[in-house]
Write a structure and sequence with these properties.
Length: 195
């Protein structure tokens, strides 16, 4: 893991603080410039490299001001995080061409180990942002309607952090609208059943 600390600093192009600790996943603290990697019993080299590259992407391209805007505008952090992950992973793979293979291998191992806790679950029942997350984390056969594919494509088209925030607001609005429609359908169905 010592080699990955040096690698992370080199790739991030700054002297970020790299730590290893007991935690469920990797994280990057944008304010304190700290990349923390998990210590797992059986963590493969592929997963270590994937997590390091992913968090380096946040070090390079996730600005502190973005987090301030998310708080100010009361945008769902989980929606922003999914969309920002898509943006920074795309940027990492463009900047470091060898990263494509690392992301593919690492995500396949994570999926195989049920890291995303999808085994036995009906992914079609997940909300849109969770399915977008799985899709861009290399899950295969994540179902989307034609209307939803517009959002999937938009997620891939973000270039700046402002693009991510704008799209997060739009998707949050879509989720609210969809929830209201689902509630209306349930109410309509329950009324028809009572008759």
């Amino acid at each position: 893991m010592k080699d990955l600390s040096l690698l992370a600093k080199l790739l991030a192009e700054e002297d970020i603080h790299v730590v290893h600790r007991q935690q469920p996943t990797a994280m990057f603290d944008v304010l304190n410039r700290e990349l923390s990697l998990p210590i797992w019993k059986d963590m493969s080299k592929n997963i270590q490299e994937l997590m390091t590259l992913h968090e380096v992407g946040h070090a390079l391209w996730t600005p502190l001001e973005m987090m301030d805007k998310v708080k100010e505008q009361k945008i769902s952090f989980s929606v922003v995080n999914v969309l920002e992950d898509v943006r920074i992973e795309k940027a990492v793979q463009l900047k470091y061409k060898g990263a494509v293979k690392i992301f593919n291998k690492g995500y396949q191992e994570l999926i195989h180990s049920n890291f995303f806790e999808t085994v036995g679950k009906k992914i079609e029942n997940y909300n849109l942002i969770d399915r977008i997350n799985l899709h861009y984390k290399h899950h295969t056969d994540v179902p989307f309607s034609n209307d939803e594919m517009v959002w999937v494509k938009k997620a891939n088209e973000t270039v700046t952090s402002d693009d991510v925030i704008k799209l997060a607001i739009e998707i949050s609005g879509y989720h609210k609208k969809k929830s209201k429609e689902d509630i209306k359908m349930c109410t309509k169905y329950s009324k028809s059943v009572k008759r």
